[in-house]
Request: fold
Amino acid sequence: MSSTETRSMTATERTIADIWSGLFGTGITDPDADFFALGGTSLTAVKFLARVEDRFGEDALLPETLYEDARLGALAAAIDSAVAAGGTEATAGDGDGAADAG
Amino acid sequence: MQRLTGSGAALAVHRRLNRTTVDLPRDRSVPALFRACARRRPDAPAVVHGDRVLDYRELDRLSDGLALRLREHGVAPGVTVGVCVARSPELIVTLLAVLKCGAAYLPYDPGWPARRVLGLFADAGCRHVVTDRETGPDGCVTVRVRRNGIVPADHGPDVDVPPEAIAYVNFTSGSTGRPKGVPIRHAGIARLVLGARYAPLGEDARLLQLAPVTFDAATFEIWGALLLGGTCVLYPDGFVRLSRLGAVLRERRVSVLFLTTALFNAVMDEAPGALDGVGTVLTGGEAHSPRRIAAALRRYGPGRLVHVYGPTEATTFATYHPVDLLAEGSTTLPIGRPLQNTRLYVVDGEALCEPGRGGEIWLAGDGLSPGYLGMPELTADRFVERVVDGVPERLYRTGDHGYLLPDGAAVFQGRGDDQVKVNGFRIELGEVAHHLDQHPGVRQSHVTVSVRGDRTLVAFVVADDPSCTPAALLGHLRARLPGYMVPSRIHLCDALPLTPTGKVDRHALLATHDEAVPTGRRD
Reply:
């Protein structure tokens, strides 16, 4: 069960929490939740990174960053700093055909 | 020799299905086939890695140079050489150099526990290593290769490599806790890539090398290009990212791609556009989802998608099924027909099955391994000889269940044992349980697969000792097993629940798992 003292999440954290809820089939409310502790595999990582790039732009989160520290809060911070550095670019076209496959 | 019996109808359908003979050149070792390509097209691109391109002449000369160096270190015909080199032109040069010595390569992963690597080396009698890392395992003669550090030569060692020689050894999970070494002959590789009807291989083909080289899909990706004059495009990163995969496929004009079922599904769900420019997409390894196959057919059209099937013991692929139409509401995707120079039988007891009748899938042909390393009993059990339709045949009993459709295409139905596929990796649940049970604090354990979200391994343990925590058990397993065999979660329980028939109640255990992992906080 999630701890009651959990602090409120930032917008980026909430977006990640939404993605994780979809991937793991369970509600995520804790910024200390860890991708791999939730059961994330290298395959789940491929999906997660694709969805992050869909929302935040290409290169918003590199696999190496995920494998180094997979806590939700740390990942959100990494995404925020990548986006702030302006190195990312939205790739709205990439997820096109996913609608009927999802 | 025992005979496989069968009704007229059973014999007839197998006879039709197994008319797969294609003439092969007499000299069909990997070095001979590669050299023929290098002589024919010395300037053609052989290996592409980011901005680096090796043409056939360079690859031939570099592998000759490294082969000479390996000879000086005692790599003679029949020797097995451990290879731990990151995906790079140097990796391809190394594999070819080992084969030019008449030796066999045994790829291993730097992330595997040292004691596991030493166990594999002991089973394979492997005392030589080529690596791009600082050191090799203790006690091995180690040859280091560096980027751009290999000295080319005009001629390689003067070694005649027969097609029956062993080319490589891959290890697969073993239910008794000991991994099974599967040696594969040069003839097995030639069988896989020469005269192929399942994919357009040849001088214009550009194959992506994406699989870890410890996984036998790499056999197809590398030699499917280099023994036919095509180009092997190396995926440039250590981790797969779909945006990057799409860019590499586009920019490097990849024409043939193999994706495990799990990765194929992820591409279909997240970024189907990534495959738009690829001529032929091969996929297989696990049961396919008809929904995603249908979506792929709609998006890519017919003639592009091929379902493939095959155990490591029969050299990468044994059957193929071009997916050109999918019947409305269809729930099964056949694994199809045997590849060239490969034969498939569905056997129940000692009888060939008629279409529609279920049995075990047995395979035959040049792709078969000579048998498991150092496991004569298991080899005798799985590799058998029978007279089939009047002809003596050496057969591999896969343990996979299936049946034939009236037109002869085979359908895979599952397994009767504890072998599972998780994320493309073939795992014997018994191997994981064996290592758990070795822990002194474990009284009883059960390992299974959770299908909530992606398929993951989950273990349940009854412990004798309060020091036996999930974290301690995970550490114990990580020191013994590769990462993909370590459960993503270990639960402690007071007892393993049983079904009314006295078996461990998997569903009850998985329900506990689902309740216990709502937040994913590490404990």
User: Anything to note?
Assistant: Confidence is low (pLDDT under 50) at residues 91-102 of chain A. Residues 42-56 of chain A form the longest helix (15 residues). Chain A is about 50% helix and 0% strand.
